[in-house]
Amino acid sequence: MRRSQLFGRTLREIPSEAEIPSHQLLLQAGMIRRLVVGMYSYLPLAQRALRKIENIIREEMDGIGGQEIDMPLVQPAGLWQETGRWEMLEGRELAGFEDRFGRKLVLAMTHEEAVTDLVRNQTNSYRQLPLMLYQIKLKFRDEPRPRAGLIRVREFAMKDAYSFHTDEADLESYYDQMHQVYLGIFRRLGIDVVSVESDPGIIGGTEAHEFMLIADAGEDRVISCNGCDYRANADVAAVRKPQIDNGKPAPIEEVETPDQTTIDDVANFLGLQKEQTLKAVFYSTDESLIFAAIRGDMEVNETKLKRAVGASHLWFSTDAELQRYGLVAGYASPIDVKGVTVVVDDSVASTTNLVAGANKPGYHLKNMNYPRDFRADLVTDISLARNGSTCIHCGGTLRERRGIEVGNIFKLGTKYSETMNATYLSQKGRPELLFMGCYGIGLGRLLASIVEANHDEDGIIWPPAVAPYQIHLMHIGKGDEVREQTETLYANLRAQGYEVLYDDRPESPGVKFKEADLLGMPVRFTISQRTLETNSVEVKRRTEQEKHLVRLEELDPQLYLS
User: The pTM is what?
Assistant: First the structure.
């Protein structure tokens, strides 16, 4: 491709919309352009890189028996109603509309329902299992907070795969195999990832893992232990909670605490440590108000709380909502509350003589104990893991880092087959529920993550396997002989099957070199009047500062592309 003909121009200044390095560089390099918030056009260079990413993924999916299909983006709402996810997501991330016949349709953000419907109508015998189907498909999520360029968007391409099995053991084995395949995919793409336990979220199932690129620009919090191999998304990470000995349960005592409404205020006013207090945090769902009670030295993990109460969404309660239940912010207690779902963290259940609100302004209660003094609808772990927490497995210290989720896998089990009556006939001739797995990789986010992990202050450094072009060829200086020699080399390289971006423009050497670093192809070949004197070409890898003169008859591009 001649640079003079390449669609898309580079930018000298970083656009104000760009938040993180990958966003800045992909815009500056003329690889993407925003149409509206959360939606981007991929220009030719980015599209070439995406196709290489897709091909690597296809090779790996085909290598474990996957069969590629293509399911519609538009789906009938009835499928989502079968699984209950219509009620969970309608009006939120799931975008719906009615066609001219009045039928409710959705723009698919994922395809679990569609693929389950497909398989239940095509697969009827154990002899057809196991089965894995995958697609690389455009999807739409009505994302409320698009950010960071391609990291969080509304319209996106995804590789989603779905496996079907006769039993849980077969699913377990295939899940482990897919786990290793994913690690291999990301190695081939030039990024190092870590696998972490994660929350199944709206996809559901019994177990899930995310593959995280550790990066400052990440929006996920990755928890890892310095003493063992435990790693988890902070949304699900479990910690060993310090045991606090406040003595035997003592009688409740009401104390005056004027204008003391926060945990810090109350602890300081009463001369206590925060772990001697009970923190009340209130959330609302579509069905009820949640009273989350946790020890004062900890924070509530909203993801754990959602799973505990079976809510798809929750939000901080307003003062008006609290007033309807007779609750006073800053002075609330779980004692004698009515019509509220009380969820107690296990730290509260194991700690005696806590200080909590007295359910009236200006007063707190000392020596509150569970279950003596109040009830709970549920006692479970709803605490948030933090940097420095103690590992529940080995007692080591947990470290918190930021990460970008580049892929995920789920053990769906029978979540979808049960609600959609997707069965097969077993060897005994009986209908049995299909066991399912789900495996996703977002391609645009992956493209951005590769850039996020492979760049310097001058621009992108593409891993050879996904670089839009293998070689960036240019001539500098004036003279017909320089141009002719470069044209000859361009033709020879292409004839040998190499992908070449040829900068044939009459720009200055400084402009060409700067742009070559920005675009980030693996190797740069430069011909000038100086190189002609020795019948050579100047060779520079993007990952190195050194330049080398190589005689044209000895030039082997493959040496610089490994």
Answer: 0.90
